[in-house]
Give the backbone structure.
Amino acid sequence: MAIEIIGTGRAVPNRRVTNDELAEKIDTSDEWIRSHTGIGARHYADENTATSDLGAAAGLEALKWAIQKGAVAEKTTEELALTLDLIVLGSTTQDYYGCPATACIIQNKLGAVNAAVMDLAVGCSSFIYSLETAAALLNANSQRKRALVIGADILSRVTNWEDRSTCVLFGDGAGAVLLEKTETEGRGILRSTLGADGSGWEYLGIYKGGSRNPWKKGETIDEGSTVFMNGQAVYNFAVGILTETIAKLLKDEGITAEDISMIVPHQANARIILAAGKRHKMPKEKLYINIEEYANTSSASIPIALDELNRSGAIKKGDLIMTVGFGSGLTYGGNLIRW
């Protein structure tokens, strides 16, 4: 049995904001942002767009792709949505605090009435975790066949615009993959590795709200409701853990870096990606980087990249793809996929 990716999709807001435009409002510059992060622009959702809107749009594109390529027997997205057994959403900016699950809203938007749903929130690692979770749940029940895995975030809603070290980093977007359980051996999601270092939970997060630090009557919005990041601590963690994650996936699969067609990392910082690749002597052309256009879209960064690669033909059937990433918590992980 195999869990194969048979469709990909993405949804990115139309509003594009360059570094120069940000520099008109805050004390920064295009040169500083590019040299420190590799970011040139980002996309922001309008006030009427929620995470479920972007997530559903990306999911719909993944369904359309599967139909267009003849990967499924269904002829319409409505028919295909009815065959979904599961929708897993990776996100840290759900439509509502706590409940209901944003995956429920996406299910309703797509008409996928037969799908069980869940949200999974482990920061920027959420898509990697969601992919492994969906694959495991498909394998756990012989009657389950298809799952839609979505990574979606609207980080512009939780950005501290007075903190120039973080406000330049984030963008909004969503990406999705359609999974199907098949009889083909040696294809699809071959293995995953997931982990966390909870001792770093204070380095990156949104610390207002929840049972530890709840909102109190009469309080107004303050910086606690936006993203806080200890940049140096996260950078040091990220370079090391990406390197270790790549090494573990290679070792566990019994392969070398030369066997990998493309590494698709979480797009947090171009310097982090290049540093991790250098430690494994990976040529730059095998490290997919699109952060210049989208900035850090958190849970959405890897599925957006997968869709770009898929639709452009840069990855083809039989290619060995590795995803790697890290996120708040601190969490990390990776997937090895035979395309």
Remarks:
- The chain has a mean pLDDT of 95.
- The chain has eleven helices and 13 strands.
- The chain has two domains: 2-185, 190-338.
- The radius of gyration is 19 Å.
